[in-house]
Design goal:
Layout: E1 34-38, H1 43-54, E2 58-62, H2 76-87, E3 91-95, H3 102-116, E4 121-124, H4 139-167, E5 170-175, H5 178-183, H6 188-208, E6 213-221, H7 225-228, H8 232-240, H9 255-258, H10 266-271, E7 284-288, E8 291-294, H11 312-323
Parallel strand pairs: 1-2, 1-4, 2-3, 4-5, 5-6, 6-7
Antiparallel strand pairs: 7-8
The protein binds nicotinamide-adenine-dinucleotide.
Nicotinamide-adenine-dinucleotide binds next to helix 1, strand 6 and helix 7.
């Protein structure tokens, strides 16, 4: 936040910053940094752009203003955020290029170099949805979602990484999702892209760490038009079918749910762009309201081992008895389906333990 002059005219007052620092003489935690934020016209990206600017960053507000499904174009959202930032005394320029193409990604990074002379941080927030169960999903729906999310991260990160490597300084923050890390039904395209972004983050962190550049990812949860896209009816249908969802969109009933304002994701995102976060690299954080969680890296939860190749007979025994013991199928087949291999259910009225 740009600090107002103190009432006695003695200069700006020191206010607590959302990043947890005391601002003195108007210095923010991101003072003077040049930060590119994709998808910054709405939702989470907008909140991140506003906070970065309030913390003194010069911001490229990138957003072609598309619909949730990626169609359309509207300069309005990016222009509006730029106007808000300038209205508060900050510095920002709009960019309307799409992250979905190599040319678009380069143009977005060039916008920062052109306006501010360098790029200190890249925050990849842009996203769309084309939900469909896998058996109905079209090639177009698959390609479009992969293009914006997974390839979109490559398209902006590569040119930014070239600049950051030369500078020996940089911050990259990606946006993954519980849908990719845990799986949401009806989102094979989105979940695959978001899971890919988690892997991309870990690799880019290792590629760039030696050059003083960090790369981390956030799996957010916030009430935005994107989460409203998954209708309550669809969620209830899935629940009735026994298929769980990683991010249920229930009407807010608890304080935690009320705190799912998209701006609540901004402080941790901005923190990762500060100098203080110089040694936080290759991590994935879950951020929802007042909760910030550090994710486990996917490592084996349990192992079976023998000093030779397993036979199928051995696995038929060891997998259910040892490897899978205590785990559950997230989407089990209904009881009335004839499933080869499933033990016969106890006929109704039979004596427990009796012969089948
Ligand atoms: N809201 C949540 O709970 C949630 C959960 C998990 C992950 N995410 C991720 O967080 C990010 C932000 O989501 P949101 O909820 O704020 O959505 P949102 O729809 O409110 O905002 C996304 C913005 O991205 C822009 N965009 C879309 N395609 C683009 C492109 N090709 N190039 C540049 N910009 C483009 C849109 O115009 C839009 O303004 C997304 O990556 C999303 O997948 C959100």
């Amino acid at each position: 936040m740009r600090l107002p002059a103190a009432a006695d005219g003695a200069g700006p007052a020191a206010l607590p910053s959302p990043l947890g620092q005391q601002k003195v003489n108007g210095m923010g935690a991101l003072e003077g940094k040049s930060i590119v934020i994709t998808g910054a016209g709405r939702g989470i990206g907008r909140g991140v752009a506003l906070l970065c600017a309030r913390e003194g960053a010069r911001v490229v507000v990138n957003d072609p203003g598309v619909n949730v499904d990626g169609t359309g174009h509207d300069a309005g959202p990016a222009d509006q955020v730029v106007a808000e930032i300038k209205g508060e005394g900050g510095a920002a320029v709009a960019s309307y290029d799409s992250v979905a193409t190599v040319d678009g990604g380069e143009a977005i990074v060039r916008a920062a170099i052109g306006a501010f002379g360098r790029i200190d941080a890249l925050i990849n927030v842009a996203g769309i949805l084309r939900d469909r169960m896998i058996f109905n999903m079209s090639e177009q729906e698959w390609d479009d979602v992969i293009a914006v999310h997974l390839k979109g991260h490559f398209n902006t990160t590569k040119p930014a990484a070239i600049m950051m490597r030369q500078q020996r300084y940089g911050r990259i923050v990606n946006f993954t999702s519980g849908s990719g890390l845990l799986g949401n039904p009806g989102q094979a395209n989105y979940g695959a892209a978001k899971s890919g972004i988690a892997g991309f983050t870990r690799v880019v962190a290792k590629d760039l760490g030696r050059y003083g550049v960090t790369c981390n990812a956030i799996a957010p949860a916030a009430a935005t038009r994107m989460t409203m896209q998954v209708t309550q009816e669809a969620r209830e249908l899935r629940a009735r079918a026994g298929i769980g969802s990683a991010a249920p969109n229930q009407p807010p009933v608890t304080q935690a749910q009320l705190m799912r304002d998209p701006e609540m994701v901004a402080p941790m995102t901005a923190y990762l762009c500060t100098d203080e976060a110089w040694n936080v690299n290759g991590q994935i954080f879950h951020v929802a309201g007042g909760t910030v969680g550090l994710a486990h890296h996917p490592t084996p939860a349990r192992t079976i081992w023998k000093p030779a190749m397993w036979t199928l007979d051995e696995l038929c025994e060891a997998v259910p008895a040892q490897l899978m013991a205590g785990t559950s199928n997230p989407a089990p087949p209904p009881p009335d389906l004839d499933i080869p291999g499933r033990p016969a259910t106890q006929p109704e009225g039979s004596i427990a333990g009796g012969a089948r």
